[in-house]
Every structure is written in C-alpha cells, then in structure tokens.
Amino acid sequence: MTTIRQRRVGKGTEAAEDQPSEETNVKPDGKILPDPPGGKLWSILSITVGGIVAISLGLLTSVYVATLHENDLWFSNIKEVEREISFRTECGLYYSYYKQMIQAASIQQGLHGLVYDNKTESVRTINILERMNVYQEVFLSILYRILPIQQYLEPVYFYIYTLFGLQAVYVIALYVTSWLLSGTWLSGLLAACWYITNRVDTTRVEFTIPLRENWALPFFAVQIAAITYLLRTHLQPAQERLTLMAVFVATFLFSLTWQFNQFMMLIQALALFILDCLDMLPTAKVTWLYIIQISGLLLVCVLQFFNSMILGSLLISFNVSVLIARTIQKNLKKGGLLNRLGKLILHVLLVLCLTLLINKFIKKILNLESDEHIFKFLKAKFGFGATRDFDANLYLCEEAFGLLPLNTFSRLSSTLLFYVYGFVLFLLTVAAVIVAFRNLSGSNQVHLKDKMEEYTVTLKPDAAYSLVHTVLFGCLALSTMRMKYLWTSHMCVFASFGLCSTEVWKLILKCLHLYTSQRTQVIKYSIPIITLLYISFKFWPGIMDELSELREFYDPDTVELMNWIKSNTPNTAVFAGSMQLLAGVKLCTGRTLTNHPHYEDKNLRERTKQIYQIYAKRSPGEVHGILRSFGTDYVILEDSICYERRHSRGCRLRDLLDVANGHIMDGLGENEPDLKPSLYPRFCEEIKKNLPSYTMHFTRVFQNKTFHVYKLAKHK
Question: What is the C-alpha separation between 642 and 627, in angstroms, rounded?
Fold first, then answer.
C-alpha cells in the first residue's frame, strides 16, 4: 500500500500517525496487542457479513453462468449426441475420458484403459494420464460412481455443475483477495460485481465448459489470495504455516489441471524475483514460494508418470537458478545505490545464464522436444524472423493467439473498470518506483526497523506483489488474446482494492493538501458505493434481458454425421480428419482417431501435418499412402476447411500447407519467389469429381452439406 509519512530526524521507534491500519496494534518489540472488546465485536460482525456476501455472490455467479448455458443451448431438452457435440474441439476430447471412465465396467478397468489407450492415436498405445491433464475427469467420474446420485443426476450434469460450482470458488477467491488488500469487504463486493458485468472478458466457461483453464483458474485465484495473506506483516508462525500449506495445495491443483501451468507460474516467479531484487518482499517468504512452485510441479510430474515436458520446464530451471545465484551472491542487498545496481545486474545475468544452461542440459538428457512449437511460435510472433513452420503458423493465424483487440478496452471502460484500473495502476507504479529507488539507495538503513520511518512513501508487500502481477499478466494478455482471462479477473481485484483503500486515498488527499481522517473515510466508502450503484442501474436490465433470451442448439449436419458413423461403421474403424472434428468423433462414437487437438507432443504434431495433406495439393496415391500408414479406414473432408473463407489469404489451412510443401498459394496475391506450382490439384476438391485415379483409392460412403466421408481401399 502507499502512504505518506513524516521524515524523522531522531531514533524514535514510535509508529507514525500514517502507519497502515494492519500495524496499529503492534508493540515496538513486534508483539501484537489485543483489540479492544468493542473493536473485536465489530471485526467479527464485519467478517461474518463479508463472508456471507462473498458466498452469496459466488453462488449467484454459478447460477448465472449455468442459466446462460441452458438458455443458449436448451441443454436440458436436446439429445445426448447434441449435448456431446456442443463440447467443441478439445473440450470434447477431455470430456470423452470422463465418459469413458463412467462407462467402464469398473474403476480399475477405466484407469487401465487410460494408461494403455490405443483409440486416441491409431497404431500407437499412449498413456493419457501422462500426456494430458485429465485427473479432474478421473476424480469426477470416480466420485459419480461411488455417490448415490445416479438415479437423480445424469453424468453430464454432474460434470457441468461441478465446473459451474468452481466459478463460485473463483469469485469468492477474487473477493477475498480484494478484501485482504483493501481491508474492507466492500472492495470484494465491487470486484465480484465487475467480474460479473465484464463476463465476456473475464470468463468463457458457459460455452467452453471442459477447457483446462476453467478447471485451473479458480485454483490459481485461491493461490493468489493465499499469497496475498502470506505477504501480510506480523503473521503468527502457525498462521504462516497454514497459509503456506494453502498456497501449496492451490499451486498443486492448478498445476494438475492445466498443461500451461508452468508458463503461468513462470510469470509469477518473475514477479517474485523482481520484487525480491528490489527488496520489496521478505526474502524468506519468497524462497518458500519458489520451493512450493518447484515441489508442486514435481508432484504433478510424478502423478503424470514423469512427464518430460514438466521436468524440462523453464519454471523449474529458473527457480533452481535463482536459489543457486542467491547462494553465490550472499551480499546482494548491501551497499550504496551504484554498488547494488551493479550487483543486481550481475545477479540477473547469472540467473538468466544458469536458467538457460540448466534447461538446455535437462532437455538434452531427456531428448525433450514436446514444447518446441511454443518457442517457434513466440519467435515468429515477436518478429525474430519469418517462419514456414506449419505448427508455428497454425498458432499465428488463430485469432485467440493474436494481439488483444482494442474493443476489449471499450467494453471494460463501459463498466468504469478500465478507467479505475488505469488510475490505480499509475498511482501505485509511481509509488513502487519511489520505494524501489529508496530501497536500492538506502544502504544499511533498509536493515534497521527503526530507520524504515525515514521513508515518505511505502508499498506494502501484498500490494507490491499485486501490482507486478497485474503488470506482467497484462503484458501477456496484450500479446496473446487467449490469456486475457488471467489478467481481466485480476484487474477487477486490483481496481476495486485501489478504489477502497484507505492508504491510496490518504496519499491522494495529502498530495492535494486536503487530508483529514474523516474525509478519507467518507471518500473510501462513498466512491465505491456510487460505482456499485452506477453498475447496478446500467447493467442490471441488460443482465435480465440476457437471462430471458432463449436459443437452441442446432447443428443437424454434425448430428447426422455422428449418427451415421455409429450406425454404419465397425467399432474398430479408424477415422482421419481435422483435429477439432475428430475430438467430437471420439466423444460421440468411440471410434479410433488418427489425430486430435491436444497438441503438446512432437510425434502428434508431425502426424497431424501429414493427415492434413488431404487439404493440400497432393496426388491421390500419396494421400492414400499417408492415411493408410496410420491405419486409416475412413477420412472425413469438411467443406468449411477445403473452401475456407474465415481467414485471409496466407492464413487459410490450405495456404499453410501449400507454403510448408513449397507450393504457391491459391488466389490473387504475392507468393515467395522460391515457391513452385504443384504438379497436382488440391486433393479435397479433386476427389469430389470421382475420377478413376481417385476412386481406385477412395469410395464416398456419406455426404451432406458440410461433410464428405470416404472409405479407403486396403490394397497395397
């Protein structure tokens, strides 16, 4: 937090009148004085009311998103196959393992089927528990089987209600974090209201239910709340131990439920590293947080059968490097400004070099290449050279991995969230710069408790962490739209905390020479209440209209395709096609796939590129040979891909394949000079002409307005 203090010239240790409220009952020797009886009663009453409001808002949010999901699809009225089709792309793949566990003869057989799976990738047996983060589906399926609820609740409802229930945990965690930062539950109320009214930009759970982030982000929010409490001063040893345990459990659950956990926690570790270097966080607590991140990730690694991608993560290399570098540079926080800046630069370089060396060594030992597509994507995205790499371009051309659209800010501004956020961010950034400069130039004074009164502006550790956290995740969101949900939810917390903070308003009023204690309290409560009233009057009618709007799921072509597959193909049939569609094929029909949307495996990426030659300019014999090498019996062609118009030229799937194959692209426009015309027409177009060169390899067995299914001849 920020506050203004009078500079002292003596050595007195009395608390200044501007001391933050959390420290007012602290003796000079550090012991905490008991609250007066009246104050304690008021505190209990406030916590009780605040807790009830938090739980109520969490439950209301769950009901809200569940109602939106029902109204959008008429989920309770549509057929089972339609419900399953509504779990698009990778959502369907993850849900299929829950369904597989439910339908297994026993829990043991279900687990065996996941550990030795030969239906997700044809001609290969893979361990699903190692490759994918599906322990939540396993746990939920076991829970459904052992609880006496089968007669009252269908498996799909048990699944989606659990995800909607986690939204309650999410909102409560955001509420508590804002409450801890500001000291008033009014701040939590405002954070929760902003989260709900900005739902389009804070969550997508109602239409992408099984996505890994919808499982993970509630636990990440709980972890941030626990870290916020941990960074408070004057915690009792028992409180600190319990909080560390809460941080560990939340970190473990977050890591277990999302494959991108290591990248999110790497950003978190960078925030801790920056603040520790600037002497703005207690080093001992930061060390514990590094250790918790490493131990949580290693425990997940064990549960995922020693997944090499986890062992080779940058997070583990970075955290280990920081701990090693700190051991080497023991006097990092001593000396004058120039001395400390020099040490700091060396420290950063040492950590960076150690991280790269350790990470390269681990990847060399493990022969790890699972995450290379991510670094290729990042290299191309940030302009470090053009690439023809198919996987990197596949990400670059997706809107979700592009820059954050500008209309996001207009939506966030309509609720006043972005305006308040920008104001608080500017104020606390200025305060952080002042505090960081004084910490670095304070020489030995930073180690003496009585000398801390010399500072005119302070930033409490929990507020400092929240500031750097929101800045780093803001940068991530601006660069990659899909990651905005990590930023916008914390934006609600950060803005509401600043608007309800005594210390923030005290700093502003003192700078304007208008400070009085009474005026600060009036503003602290009146501005948030006015904001809440504005949000309520402006957005309540829209929310009611949204809840009254009824739609219905309608995708007859896909339903027809799935029903045909179930009725007209053997259970052992192998299907090839787009990643997104095949996830639905597995869920709805249980047939074997050649490829799928879980892209974190090098062999699968190479296989997918080969399968996608059905949309490239290749001969029928070549395509048949590729498909049969993966055991394919049927191939599904989609007109929406073959004649794609959603992306511009250069980003259509067929264009990416042409460039990767060295062929010029279709349509008007420039081509790179070394690209050559293909000797063959586009396979997905030419096969529909039923020419002899195609019919000798492929026989059309199903067709509707969207899909064409061909059976492969099995001759050599």
Answer: 18
Q: What is the pLDDT of residues 263-311, one digit of tens each?
A: 999 999 999 999 999 999 999 999 999 999 999 999 999 999 999 889 9
Token reading at 409:
């800010």
Task: Kindly report, residue by residue over 53-71, the tens digit of the pLDDT.
Answer: 999 999 999 999 999 999 9
Judge contact between 676 and 596, C-beta under 8 A. Answer: no
Count other Cβ atoms within 10 Å, centred on residue 416.
Answer: 17
Contact (Cβ atoms closer than 8 angstroms) between residue 129 and residue 116: no
Cα-only R_g, the chain: 29
Calpha distance 589→592 (Å, rounded)? 9
DSSP 8-class letter at 313 = -
First to last CA, the chain: 73
CB 26 within 8 A of CB 474: no
Domain segments of the chain as ranges = 163-368+398-501, 556-712
Give me the DSSP letters along 492-550: HHHHHHHHT-HHHHHHHHHHTT---HHHHHHHHHHHHHHHHHHHHHHHHHHHHHHHH--
Q: Residue 561 in contact with residue 709, Cβ under 8 Å?
A: yes
Q: Residue 504's closest CA among 446, 454, 429?
A: 429
Distance CA 2, CA 425 (A): 12
Please report the sign of the dihedral spanned by the C-alpha atoms of residue 346, residue 348, residue 353, residue 355.
Answer: positive
The verdict on pTM exceeding 0.85 is yes
Reported CATH class of domain 556-712: alpha beta
Question: 10 Å Cβ neighbour count for 572?
Answer: 10
